[in-house]
Amino acid sequence: MRVLLLGGGGREHALALRLADDPSVEALFAAPGNPGIAGVAELRAVDPVDPVAVAGLAVEVSADLVVIGPEAPLVAGVADAVRAKGIAVFGPSAEAARLEGSKTFAKEVMTAAGVPTARAYTCTDEASTAAALDRFDPPYVVKNDGLAAGKGVVVTDDRAVAEAHARECGRVVIEEYLSGPEVSLFVVTDGETAVPLLPAQDFKRVGDDDSGPNTGGMGAYAPLSWAPADLVDDVMRDVVHPTLTEMRRRGTPFAGLLYVGLAITADGPRVIEFNARFGDPETQVVLALLETPLGGLLHAAASGSLVDHPPLRWRAGAAVTVVVAAEGYPAGPRTGDVITGGEQPGVIHAGTARRATDGALLSAGGRVLCGTATGPDLAAARDAAYQVVRGVTLSGSHYRRDIAAAAVDGRIALPG
Ligand code: AMP
Ligand code: GLY
Q1: How far is the CA of 178 from the centre of ligand 1 (A)?
Q2: Class of domain 120-175
Q3: CA of 250 to the centre of ligand 1 (A)
């Protein structure tokens, strides 16, 4: 089959590597892609949030499958436009992508479906914000209601900071603080059948020991040796299937990748958020362990035939990825610096670009690249991932030193 992959971050580089090594994928195109993706796909220029342009490109390259990486094109209706051309697309409709695009909508669906999540109030002014904050003890959780690339959430003990974030966003969701280790579970679905991938853990804060502001994600690992044995079964039964049923009942079935962000609380798993696409950087580790050819799996989901797909096969061992971020990330990343070591095996490109004059690799975004590695166990994978990162130089860059450290040391405790 001929595949067009939309996007150009680390997640898309990881997707591209696995699509390229699927024997059923005979041609791989990526738009806009990045210098890493260029090693395995033919790059095309397109405005990823222009539905007409993307559908036109899919026709032009005779795509049998379009895989949409980021959330913005989904919310903009790109999947709908491609599907209207009769081309299979992995990614939900704009209506269904509201599970990610609107926190209020996601809460409505969860409430209707009886999905366990934090109690929450949507607030649009100072009075309703104050009333909502009164209902909770600190830490306060204040979320921008729209898409915010992982940076719209403030978790703080300081009521003034919570109120200031609410004022800045305009429309926010204020919710109960969920205490417990976080898990990201990716589920591939055609709207009816749902296939879970391996649970992973992401590191959202910029600094070691979860210090500093939230980011898009600074590292990840899988599998989770400390997770309850029945976690995936419980989440499929209590979260995923009720949500998919509710979306079908509304006439807007969710097909694509349902990303369930969970906290494992003393009362069991609780949903922190839904996303409508693969997570970044969790995808880098989950796909590093997937043995089943990716193109066939995503095509089955995109064409409603997931029920006939064979069970997934996983490599033994573990995978770790460590994000190298630009100076100033997340507040104001500096770009345009020269990167060395960016061609090593295990480097997944995110915000990189080639200098036109000499082809040098430059930083071009906040999260610049990640060092990803597998190993027979988590400690070995972690050592290997840091080895990759130490082989990269980028002036002013920073990375967390503690990715997967607590799990390796057996320091993650389940509450209750
Ligand atoms: P979100 O954009 O909803 O994923 O939130 C980003 C991060 O903020 C999450 O990964 C959590 O670390 C934190 N967070 C969000 N909601 C809550 C909550 N209700 N309780 C505790 N932490 C939260
Ligand atoms: N890793 C968090 C996200 O993709 O939203």
Answers
A1: 8
A2: alpha beta
A3: 27
Pick the atom of ligand 1 nearest to 273's CA. Answer: 3
- Establish whether residue 279 lines the binding site of ligand 2, counting it when its CB lies within 6 angstroms of any ligand atom: yes
Instruction: Answer whether 368's CB lies under 8 Å from 352's CB.
Output: yes
Q: Is the CB of 202 under 6 A from ligand 2?
A: yes
Q: Which fold is adopted by the domain 318-408? A: Glycinamide Ribonucleotide Synthetase; Chain A, domain 4 (3.90.600)
Structure tokens at 86: 């009769």
Topology of domain 2-90 in CATH is Rossmann fold (3.40.50)
C-beta of 71 in contact with ligand 2 (< 6 A): no
Ligand 2 test: best mutation among 144, 153, 184, 260, most atoms within 8 Å of CB?
184
Provide the residue type at 49 as one letter.
Answer: V
Ligand 2 pocket residue status of 10, Cβ below 6 Å: no
Task: State the ligand closest to the CA atom of 140.
Answer: 1
Which pTM was predicted? 0.96
How far is 284 from 10, CA to CA, in rounded Å?
7
| Any ligand 2 atom below 6 A from CB of 152 | no
The tens-digit pLDDT sequence of the chain (416 residues) is 999 999 999 999 999 999 999 999 999 999 999 999 999 999 999 999 999 999 999 999 999 999 999 999 999 999 999 999 999 999 999 999 999 999 889 999 999 999 999 999 999 999 999 999 999 999 999 999 877 655 588 999 999 999 999 999 989 999 999 999 999 999 999 999 999 999 999 999 999 999 998 899 999 999 999 999 999 999 999 999 999 999 999 999 999 999 999 999 999 999 999 999 999 999 999 999 999 999 999 999 999 999 999 999 999 999 999 999 999 999 999 999 999 999 999 999 999 999 999 999 999 999 999 999 999 999 999 999 999 999 999 999 999 999 999 999 999 999 87
Which residue ranges make up each domain of the chain? 2-90, 120-175, 180-308, 318-408
- The CATH label, of 2.60.270.50, 3.30.470.20, 3.30.70.1450, 1.20.1250.20, for the domain at 180-308 is 3.30.470.20
